[in-house]
Amino acid sequence: MDWYPLYNSLRIAAISTVAVFFLGIFAAYYIAKLPRLVKGVLDVVLTLPLVLPPTVVGWLLLCLLGPKRPLGAWVLETLGVKLVMTWWSAIFATVVVAFPLMYRTARGAFESFDQNLADAGRTLGRSNTWVFWRVQMPVCKQGILAGTVLAFARALGEYGATSMIAGYTPGRTATISTTVYQLWRTNDDLGALKWVLVNIAISAVFLLAVNLLETRQRQKGGGH
Amino acid sequence: MIQNGSINMKKYLSLLLALCLVLALTACGGSKEESAKTEEPAKTEEPAPETQEPAAEPVEITVFAAASMQESLNAAIEQYKTVAPEVTVVTTYDSSGTLLTQIKEGASCDLFISAAPKQINALDGSLKDDAEKNPDGLDVVIQGSRLNLLENKVTLAVPEGNPAGIESFDQLADLLKNGEVALAIGNSDVPVGQYTQKIFTYYEIDEAAIASKLTYGSNVKEVTTQVSEGAVDCGIIYGTDAFSAGLTVVDSATAEMCGQVIYPAAVLNVGDQPEAAQAFLDYLTTPDALACFEAVGFSPMV
To answer: Do B230 and A66 touch (CB under 8 A)?
Structure first.
């Protein structure tokens, strides 16, 4: 069996998770400090990909990144690089759909963070950066980790937008989800079943991890 | 995960919900108005309420047709509204392979127009004993209704400006075997993909060996979009799709390369209105209807 889709799906999910990890926590940190109205609006906009169908996300991405569209054409001309139809094109899609998960979980963790701890750090003369990474993050660790794992699982399970923006080239842009669809479409039910089981196994493992992390957070007494 | 219990958050949420409700109501209100207008005469969709015939029973027929027929068949259906105003034609356009699967899975369909004989063969009871053509031994086609309606051409289309300088099938075959090119084709369940495979065989190209240069679409419109968006260097689609999408065709496949591209049509016994469907199929064989197909590049076979 050709294992490329597994390798491709995992690396796309891993890279997106790293990107989403930083984007998510920084968005959550800075947006929490904004005035209520701006915070409310940004909240809606940034959570939108969570509830939009992936085909809508894919369509919007193509409108922006296609070789004849504003951003895509500019990149093609200046850098000679096509943003669609490559294995890493899928990363645009997975980052957009996984971001809200990280963002909301991080927001939740940060908002139930006891500011007294941060203030204590500041009275001892520590910088905001130090307080964030050495006090706030460790305290919110469970929530952050849960968000990261959810984002990874979502990125691994992306289909609609990935299919539209990366196409399906076996051995190059194929992911587990697009492979299952193609195998089903070409009447290779056994092949499709194998990948379905692989995907279920990996996703189940990650969701189990989320449950364990959330249970531990609750037991700790802190958090939400 | 909405953990913020503050009153302000709830206020904004309710404001947003109210806004969405208002938008939804205006949208629904608009469409209700339109349907109310057309509901006046006799619960049908005809634009001209003055018809000579007495108001006939409104009838709805379901047509499954190959994606490549979308524009032309829609035009023929518009014309049909003046001929038989009581008939509403509901269409589903997709890869003929997808449509065949849907019919096999129990979809209700009156008329099936496929982009290759293969899909209708699989439903033709007269071929029940031919395990290759009708592997599941299905008997869905109403005998006597099947006919070859149209002929199409398999072509090589390029995006605007032809950035990769693709000139012909011969040159494409060479690039696939020895050079670099990004080609979009239909997958093996799609008729145009099946014709492409025949072209590969003609040029002795091993599809597995050139896999990294191909991207597979699940129907011909998807392949066409990839070409028109410039996401690939070229695509193998029908001449009619290239015409409808305004794409430049650099070469056409000969009958020697992929055989004749025949679109058969048949009335099925898994629909509710076989007589109305037969009447519609008869209409499609008239010069008026055929003109719609010829306008985009089909050749009539009737």
So the answer is: yes
Helix (H) / strand (E) element for B150: namely: strand B147-152
B154-197 per-position pLDDT tens digit: 999 999 999 999 999 999 999 999 999 999 999 999 999 999 99
Q: Which of B136, B216, B232 to mutate to test the interface with A (most CBs of A within 10 A)?
A: B216
Q: Which two tokens stand for residue B184?
A: 């979009």
Domain of A205 in residue numbering reads as 4-220
Residue-wise pLDDT tens digits, A40-61: 999 999 999 999 999 999 999 9
- Residue from B102, B190, B182, B192 nearest B154 by CA: B192
State how far the Cα of B236 lies from the Cα of B100, in Å rounded to an integer.
Answer: 22
Which residue from B9, B230, B231 is facing A167, i.e. has the nearest CB? B231
User: Which domains, and CATH codes, for chain B?
Assistant: 59-151+262-300 (3.40.190.10), 154-252 (3.40.190.10)
Q: CB–CB of A62 and B229 under 8 A?
A: yes
In the chain, the amino acid numbered A120 is A
**pLDDT for residue A90:** 94
Q: Which CATH number is A32's domain given?
A: 1.10.3720.10
* Mean pLDDT lowest among A32-46, B33-47, B63-77, B256-270: B33-47
Strand-pair category, B299-300 with B147-152: antiparallel
Rg (CA), chain B: 23
Q: How many domains does chain A have?
A: 1
